[in-house]
Amino acid sequence: MNKPVELIIFDWDGTLFDSVGQIVASLQFAAQQFEQPLTAADAKSIIGLGLPEVAQRLFPRVPELHADILQCYADHYVAHSKGDIWFDGVAEMLLALSEAGLKLAVATGKSRKGLDRVLKQTESQNLFISTRAASETRSKPHPLMLQEILAETGIRAEQAMMVGDTSYDLEMAQNIAMPRVGVSYGVHSIETLSHYQPLHIADSVTALHQFLLQQAGLRQAV
């Protein structure tokens, strides 16, 4: 990039938040209640998509059950999500990036209700200049949520960066030529993420923190 990055847009689940295990468990619980087969691998593979797209991918034969399955999933997730927290180092990374003058945003497959709940839970509402949830726009990998964030912030795609753990995140950014960074500690493999030509694939939050500081033109050690 010719100029330092001004805006960093983060995915939530599997990138900032250690919630993948609970999402998988809640999807499998909901599927079981409606006698629908669902492996952990299949449940994990769709993390990052909007909930309607999740239902279409996982339960294509029973569209009449989608609303009930998703409600069951949501109820189970909220009731059992006591352990979903920031990955180690995320809170410190976000604070350091914000204090360095970078603008931060979130683009997530969560619903607005779900995103607002975890923003409140982590007391991080004021860290993000803009947030988009799949329930209020197009699901990844369509780039509309990124385009809306860019329009709101007045920043061009080439001066922003998308950070995510799934192919959906990186493909979404690739669709509008936005620089992108993968993380390999979430859902998708390094091999899968590499298909979308990320600038870097970080294997830890510490490595991600260091890379983002460098991309912003900062040399501070983490």
TrEMBL record:
GO terms for biological process: DNA repair. InterPro entries: HAD-like_hydrolase_sf (IPR050155), HAD-like_sf (IPR036412), HAD-SF_hydro_IA (IPR006439), HAD_2 (IPR041492), HAD_sf (IPR023214), PGP-like_dom2 (IPR023198). One of its GO terms (molecular function) is phosphoglycolate phosphatase activity. Coiled coil: none annotated. Keywords: Hydrolase. One of its GO terms (cellular component) is cytosol. This is HAD family hydrolase. The lineage of its organism: Bacteria, Pseudomonadati, Pseudomonadota, Gammaproteobacteria, Moraxellales.
